[in-house]
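Tokens in:
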């Protein structure tokens, strides 16, 4: 039987069928409540039975899926593929995804970890660019980190907060070693320029001029590596930053539009609506309402 619900740890709507056998699970929302730069909000190890599926419609955490036994059928960005032991996949915030066990592959035991943080999106872009799929020679170091994080999140000791944040960063840094090194120096410089000028009304032609290349060459580099234009890439960065400011500050829509590089609030509202289907003020109220209902529960 299909069940729709709201995930307690991420405030996002989800859908599933069969119940999971949760062998290990721990969560702590301290980092979200205190607006930390980086925080591992949950760690779980679960058994997924045959014919199970789980849909995240609009996840509010960046999550990593890590199968250790069996195989996981994963759908993301309109692509469906099989995730096997020795592979890790990043499911970004705000992007629909579906996890499933089909009859052919039987079951899957997997680890999952979800991250939040007001600097997390920028960090992930810096470490992984637009890379989601990682092929790991030896999962043992990552499993050890996940076990440590699970124990610390379960205990919820204030004295362990720096250690928890450190373990979270270590997980991401070690995973970054498996990102293919095919990015060109010009593209890496272009991404840095966009990141550093997120709050400025920078234009693509200015970036191209700074790198001494043509606009068409810059667009080709972005399309080949990220699958989007430089303008779309910059818009993605700005919307992610706007989401953080909407959730974790009391700044007005006008102030947020200025801090994310938009010269007019109307333009910011239009771009935000394209991404979320509603204006930023409505999105903020919905997110605040979800957070309040979660605290009451």
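Residues out:
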């Amino acid at each position: 039987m299909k069940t729709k619900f709201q995930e307690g740890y991420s405030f996002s709507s989800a859908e599933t069928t069969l119940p999971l056998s949760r062998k290990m699970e721990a969560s702590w929302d301290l980092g979200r409540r205190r607006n930390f730069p980086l925080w591992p909000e949950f760690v779980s190890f679960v058994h997924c039975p045959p014919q199970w599926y789980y849909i995240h419609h609009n996840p509010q955490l960046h999550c990593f899926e890590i199968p250790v036994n069996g195989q996981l059928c994963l759908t993301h960005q309109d692509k469906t593929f099989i995730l096997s032991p020795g592979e890790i996949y990043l499911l970004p915030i705000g992007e629909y995804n579906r996890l499933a066990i089909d009859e052919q592959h039987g079951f899957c035991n997997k680890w999952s970890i979800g991250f939040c943080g007001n600097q997390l999106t920028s960090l992930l872009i810096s470490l992984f660019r637009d890379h989601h799929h990682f092929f790991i020679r030896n999962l043992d170091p990552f499993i050890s980190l996940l076990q440590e994080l699970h124990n610390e999140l379960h205990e919820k000791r204030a004295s362990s907060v720096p250690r928890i944040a450190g373990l979270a960063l270590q997980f991401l840094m070690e995973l970054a070693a498996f990102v293919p090194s095919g990015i060109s120096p010009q593209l890496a410089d272009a991404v840095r320029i966009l990141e550093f000028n997120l709050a400025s009304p920078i234009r693509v032609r200015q970036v191209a001029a700074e790198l001494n290349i043509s606009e068409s060459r810059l667009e080709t580099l972005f399309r080949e590596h990220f699958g989007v234009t430089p303008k779309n890439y910059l818009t993605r960065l700005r919307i992610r930053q706007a989401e953080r400011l909407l959730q974790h500050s009391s700044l007005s829509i006008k102030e947020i539009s200025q801090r994310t590089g938009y010269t007019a609030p109307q333009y910011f509202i239009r771009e935000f609506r394209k991404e979320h289907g509603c204006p930023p003020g409505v999105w903020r109220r919905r997110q605040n309402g979800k957070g309040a209902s979660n605290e009451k529960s």
